[in-house]
Specification:
Layout (H helix, E strand, L loop, with lengths): L1 H14 L4 E6 L3 H13 L3 E7 L2 H9 L7 E5 L7 H11 L4 E6 L4 H9 L4 E4 L4 H12 L23 H11 L4 H8 L3 H15 L4 H13 L5
Parallel strand pairs: 1-2, 1-3, 3-4, 4-5
Helix pairs in contact: 3-4, 7-10, 8-9
Length: 225
């Protein structure tokens, strides 16, 4: 009888599944509170730590010890966006499986996350069950993202520009004025303004500052090789 009890206890212990340890990075305290509550109620996960900045996220992932099986990463943190964090993860060769938790429905964000190596992607306005299904899929080594046309994954606003427009955007980023562009290219200042207007329209921005910011973002977080 004692032998049967011991065997039964062993089987019970083996049947208990391992919990996946989760790191949450999000600047909005309400979202953090909701995630912490949901994770604590789900027996498949164990909330390891909450952070609000990209710097703290990267430090937590790099600490010695058991580490994290998964990370839920908000798109906007207190010091950088999710693209910056994903780029740093790749550059530092940090081993962590990341699910982006975005409150922005901009398709370009999803494309950027896929290019930068995110393992999963959810929207904050989705049903919570979708987030947990995504976490489980990613924890088991799969990629889980909303449908996207993979043939267009590297399409960005900059990819639609001509060679001349790329050159124009580059000199804008270098701080050239309209007068300088006109003088160095041999065209009139009005023609420069015309080309800039077309450039802004293609990039879907309103002014020079927005165009330069987009250029810098794409340059820093561009398509992975």
């Amino acid at each position: 009888m004692q032998r049967e009890t011991e065997l039964g206890d062993t089987k019970t212990a083996e049947a208990v599944p391992r919990k996946f340890r989760v790191l949450v990075a999000e600047r909005n305290p309400l979202v953090v509170s909701a995630l912490a509550d949901m994770i604590s109620r789900d027996g498949r996960f164990d909330l390891g730590e909450n952070v609000t900045s990209g710097k703290a996220f990267l430090e937590a992932c790099s600490m010695p010890g058991p580490g994290f099986d998964l990370a839920v990463l908000g798109w906007k943190l207190s010091d950088m966006d999710g693209g910056g964090v994903l780029a740093e993860i790749r550059q530092r060769d940090i081993n962590v499986r990341v699910v982006i938790f975005s409150n922005d429905h901009d398709l370009s964000i999803l494309k950027k996350c896929v290019r930068l190596g995110a393992h999963g992607f959810c929207y904050q306005f989705d049903d919570p069950a979708i987030l947990f299904d995504t976490l489980i899929a990613v924890a088991h080594g799969r990629i889980c993202i909303p449908y996207i046309d993979v043939s267009k994954i590297n399409d960005t606003p900059l990819s639609r520009l001509t060679t001349r427009e790329h050159e124009l955007l580059a000199v804008l980023a270098d701080g050239w004025t309209n007068v300088q562009i006109a003088a160095r290219t041999g065209i009139s200042e009005n023609t420069v303004k015309y080309h800039l207007k077309n450039l802004y329209s293609k990039l879907e921005v309103r002014n020079r500052a927005m165009a330069v910011a987009l250029y810098a973002s794409e340059k820093n977080h561009g398509p992975a090789a």
